[in-house]
Structures are given as C-alpha cells and as structure tokens.
Amino acid sequence: MRNPLIEVQKHGQSLWYDYISRDLLLSGELRRLVEEDGVRGVTSNPSIFEKAIAGSSDYDPAIQSLVGQGESDAQTLYEALAIQDIQLGCDVLRPVYDASDRSDGYVSLEVSPHLAYETEATLDEARHLWESVGRPNLMIKVPATTEGLPAIEQLIAEGINVNATLLFAVGYYEGVHHAYQRGLARFVESGGDPSTVASVASFFVSRIDAMIEKRVATEFEESPEPDRKAKLEGLLAKVAIANAVDAYASFQRDLATPEWEALAAKGARPQRVLWASTGTKNPDLPATLYVDELIGPNTVNTVPAATFEAFKTGGTVANALCGRGDATLQEARAIMASLDELGIEFQEITDELLTKGCALFCDAFDQVLAAVATKRDALTKNA
Asked: What are phi and psi of 162, to 5 degrees?
C-alpha cells in the first residue's frame, strides 16, 4: 500500500519523529515506526520530556531505583532518565544510521535551555551529554542564539554532532550554516574525517504563521482600509512557508560555493535544513500543510505524532521546494516583500519568537524537574 511517510524519501527528505517516551521505546512502537513507516530519526526537547515523565508512571521504577542508589537531586534524576531514553532510541535507530552511511538514524538531546545565552556553559554541558550517552548517532541540540553560534562551531570542530535549534530568521540560519562550515574546516585541519560529523539546522515554521495571525487580527480590530485588509488576509498561512523557502534557497546557494565544494570533496556532509514546529496551530488549516509544502532534497521534517498520522493517510508527496524551478522562490520573496510594504517588521517577529522559544523551553525544563521531584518525594514516602 502507498505510504507517503516512505515516499518522501524519493525526493531526498527524511522524516524524524518529534517525540520520545519510555513506553514508545519499551513497547516496540518506535521500532515499528522505523521498520514500517520509515522514521529516520527522533527529536526531543524539554517539553517532550515534561509530557512523557509527568504524564505517566512509566518512569517511576527508574526513579525509585535511582533514589535507592542514593540519588536525590531532581536535575540529576532527570538527566539519568533522559539519557536512558536517548540511549535506547539511538540503539533502535542504529541500523538506520549504519545503512544510511551515517546520514540518518540520529536522536537529539538538548542542553539545558537555561544555558542558551552562555557559550562556555553550553559547551561544557554538551560535552558531558555526548560522553554520557556514548552513542555515535546522538545529536546535541544547541539553541541558535548569538552565544550559541560559537558553541555550535566549536562542537563541530570537536567532531560532535549538532542539531542547531530555534531558528526563525534566515539571517540566523545563515550564521548557523557558516558556523558549521568553519567548525568542519577546523575539524579537517586537526586531522578529523568530516564524513563522521553530521548536523541539522532546525528552522521553525508554524509559530511564525501563528504570530502573523495575531498581528493581522490586531490590525483588523483597528478597522484598516479595505485594500490593506485584503493584503493582510493574503498573508495568512503563507509567511512561514515563504520564510522557509527563502532559507532553503540560502542553503542551496551555500552548497555551490568553492568553500563548501572543497569540504565536500573531503567527504563533508551538508548541514541539512530541518523543518521544525510543523504541526499546524490553526485547526482550520490542513493538518499536513507544513509537511506537504516543504518536501525537497537534503531536508528533514521532524513531525509531531498527530501530524505524522495525518500525513500517512492524506499527505501530498511531491518535490515542493524544487519541482517548479525558480517560481517557488519568486513567490516566496513576493510574500516576504509584502510584509515590508505593509509595515510589518518581520525581524521583530523572529527575534520575539527566539526569545519566547528559549523561555518556553526553560519553563518546560523547570516543570519536568518539578515533576521528577514530586515523583521522587511520593515514591520515597511510599517506600
């Protein structure tokens, strides 16, 4: 039977599953998703772990065991639980990693979001997590803040796989891609084999359209002119994809530069663009919008469970990014230009989204630590 989840691979895209939990791993469901539905990787973040740990009793035995061994600090307990999950996930995906010659089969683990604005602390934690997990198909997630860029470069220079996350602006994306190339060049200079290092740049999608919707709704309340109102309505559900198309065009341009070609000749892998936040926020939009419209070579889409199932049954598979030549990029740039014409400062939106993204992950991180502490105390009391 036709399975869009697998068909996208014909167009150079890999689908990664945007969820992880102890039950997903131990029940064999992740293995089934890999073997039957073509899942090529897994991503995690503090929000995902908060839902997994706080929302079930699956982690209680592990917490009880760790407490019995003398562990009591909530962050230490959380880290142990997360590392166990990531190791199990890496092991399930190891056949994909091997069969794809290290192109896919990765599981991502994020450094503490509280370190997003601290370069050296990010590096220290990233190295610690890399050593603790001890799997070659691990990717360390690093927020792409100004302080995160030098950390990304340094980790790549040390041969550590990186998932650069929380990208909203094309300019920030370009900074990440250049940091990756500088890191690879340094890795090669130190005698490293660049084919052993992988990286993705996680470019967020749906949150942009959600912000545009809010801006448009605010303007409507102020009763704009009919012509302006029509132009604003024309932006709805279009800006996020246009912005992503612009980022992808930048990626393609970089692959044609002499600097990249020199690295590629030595075995370097492209830092694929990873489309993140691809579940639609607005229930009136097609559930598969941000998957259908962003299929193309050298891309990854990290798909939430509900969107994954929706795409399996009703996804549209085509080379959306490259199938129409320059027309897709021209249309995207026209949409982005209309933002300027309407006086909407897009950089303000992307800067706000980055700040909010870091704050939301910090909140989720604090919540998961609180959930672990609550479970620890309950299990200790009942022991």
From this structure: -130, 135
Ordered structural domains, the chain, with CATH: 4-204+271-319+348-378 (3.20.20.70)
User: Residue with structure tokens 């740039």?
Assistant: 333
DSSP conformation letters of 136-181: TTEEEEEE-STTHHHHHHHHHHTT--EEEEEE-SHHHHHHHHHHHH
**Number of C-beta neighbours around residue 28 at 10 A:** 11
Q: Which two tokens stand for residue 362?
A: 């910090």
CA distance 156 to 314: 38
**In this prediction, what percent of the chain has a pLDDT beyond 70?**
99
pTM, 2 dp: 0.96
Phi, psi dihedral angles at 252 (to 5 degrees)? -65, -40
- What distance in Å separates the CA atoms of residue 22 and residue 59, rounded to the nearest whole number? 7
pLDDT band at 383 (very low <50, low <70, confident <90, very high): low
Residue of 141, 231, 266, 356 marked catalytic: 141
Q: Is 160 left (phi over 0), alpha (psi -120 to 50) or beta?
A: beta
CA distances, 270 to each of 110, 164, 176, 289 (Å): 21, 14, 12, 25
- In this structure, the strands spanning 106-110 and 138-143 are parallel
Question: What is the mean pLDDT of the segment spanning 290-295?
Answer: 98
What span, in angstroms and rounded, lies between the C-alpha atoms of 113 and 345? 27
312 has catalytic annotation: no
- Total residue length of the chain: 383
